[in-house]
Design goal:
Layout: E1 27-31, E2 34-41, E3 44-50, H1 59-79, E4 88-93, H2 103-108, H3 116-120, E5 126-132, H4 134-137, H5 141-152, E6 156-165, E7 174-178, E8 204-214, H6 215-219, E9 228-229, H7 234-253
Parallel strand pairs: 4-5, 4-6, 6-8
Antiparallel strand pairs: 1-2, 2-3, 3-7, 7-8, 8-9
Length: 259
Amino acid sequence: MLRSSDLFIESGEAGEAAAPLRFSDPERVWLEGFDAVRAAGDTGGYHSVLCGEIWLSPPEDRGRLSKALRALVSHYRRRMRHADDAPVLVAGLGTEQMAADALGPRTASRILATTGDMREAGMPAVCAVKTGIPRETGMDTADLVKALAQEAGAALIVTVDSLTARSRERLGTLVQITDCGVTPGSALAHSSGEISAHTMPCPVLSLGVPTVIRSDVLAGELTDDPMFVSRADTDAMVTAYARILAAAINGAFSGNPAE
C-alpha cells in the first residue's frame, strides 16, 4: 500500500505499527532556502526537505541543506525531550555492498562517536554503528539496534536509511525526517523489524533519502512482483547525502560537523 510518506514504516503491513499512519494535510515551509513540507499525526510527524539533485550543486548549497537538517534534528530532539548530555545511538541501516542501500553505513562512518576520555572532557555520549542486513549478520536489524541501544544506555536512537520513492520526481531529490519510526526492508516485503518508540527502549528519530523506486510505479501499473530501480549516478548521490546527513547529525549533537 502506498501512503503519504516515503518511510518504510508506511509501506508494509507487518509489525506492531501495521495500521496506516495518518497525517494532517502537509504544510509548506521554507528551510534555508529549500522548499519543504511538514505534517503531524497522532503518533508523530515528519518533514520532507525538497532539495533536487543536490549532489550536483555547489558546496555552498550542500552546506545550506546540512544546516537545514541540523535545525530539524535539533527540533525533533527538543520535542522528544532528549537532554544535551543524554546518550545517543546513531544506527546506519543497510549494506555497503549495494550503492542504493549504502546511505546508512556511509553516514555512520562519518559520525563523530565519542570515547570515554572524550565524554569525561565534556563531549556528549555518541555511539555509531553500521547494522548491516540480516543476510550479513544473521539477526533482524531491529533486534540488533535494540540490543545495542540497551547496551549503550541510549536515550535516543537516530536511524539513517535508504528509502523507496513513491514517484519518479522524488527519487534522490528529498530528505525526510520523522519521529514515527522506520521498518527496514518492508518495501521489499521482507521486513527486518520495526524500529520505533513502540519497539525500542527509547524514542527514535529517522532520516532517509529515497534511492530506489518500484518498477511498477514507474510503469504506472502496480503488481505483486516488482523490481526496484535506481539512478545511474546513485553512488555519487549516496556519497554526497551521507556527508550532508553526517554533518547535520554531528552538528546537532556535538557542534562539530564531520567535514
